[in-house]
Amino acid sequence: MAQADFYILPAADEESRYRFLGKLATRAIGAGHQLYVLTDSRQQAEIISERLWHAGPETFLPSHLANTQTASQAPICLGWDSAHFPQKPDLLVNLSSHYPTQTKQFKRVTEIVIQQDNILEQTRQRYKSYQQDGIKPNMHDMRNRP
Predict the structure, then answer these.
(1) Ramachandran angles phi, psi of 37, nearest 5°
(2) Are the C-beta atoms of 115 and 58 separated by less than 8 Å?
(3) What are 6's strand-pairing partners?
(4) CB 116 within 8 A of CB 8
(5) Which DSSP string do the residues of 126-140 spell out, in sequence order?
(6) Among residues 65, 51, 66, which one has the least CA distance to residue 21?
(7) What does each C-alpha distance from 4 to 55, 57, 63, 65, 130 come to in angstroms?
(8) Which sequence spans correspond to the domains of the chain?
(9) What average pLDDT does range 78-106 have in this prediction?
(10) Residue 52 contacts residue 19 (beta carbons within 8 Å)
(11) Once rounded to an integer, what is the mean pLDDT over residues 39-52?
(12) Edge to edge, what strands does the sheet with 35-38 contain?
């Protein structure tokens, strides 16, 4: 059964979301996981891919866009359509604005939440959707952490 983790960040900007994704991806890849990052569009996926490739001088986070000629065996795949979901689902990071219907295929699902009204409202709805699908959401409040 899938596990859903919500990471509630103190910031409201997208850049904070991408930085946290870099930290999360570093840990997940180190533990041997394959990540599928769901976005709303190819443009958003390209922006995130660029951020991951340049996450930091001591960090190497290779990624590729789904359903493209440059698709590779990189541990991070970025997609924007349900047709892009991997054959062997492992860890889904949902950065899209909707609830992915394929959540049960993944061992873990992660939501990275920033303090924007529209994202907070989407998060509340997805929290309910996870519960309705029998997935117990785990909340990780990062607002009071150094």
Answers:
(1) -100, 115
(2) no
(3) 111, 139
(4) no
(5) HHHHHHHTT--EEEE
(6) 51
(7) 25, 30, 22, 24, 8
(8) 3-141
(9) 88
(10) no
(11) 92
(12) 63-65, 76-79, 35-38, 91-94, 108-113, 3-8, 137-141
Q: Side chain identity at 73, as an amino acid letter?
A: Q
- The matching CATH number, chosen from 3.40.50.10110, 3.80.10.10, 3.40.1260.10, 3.40.50.261, for 3-141 is 3.40.50.10110
Whether residue 70 is predicted with pLDDT greater than 60 in this model: the reply is no
pLDDT tier for residue 96 given thresholds of 50, 70 and 90: very high
Per residue in 10-36, pLDDT (tens digit) is 999 999 999 999 999 999 999 999 999
What is the SS3 assignment for 30? helix
Whether 94 has a pLDDT exceeding 70, the answer reads yes
* Contact (CB, 8 A) for 119 and 94: no
pTM, full prediction: 0.91
Reading the block at residue 52, the tokens are: 């991951």
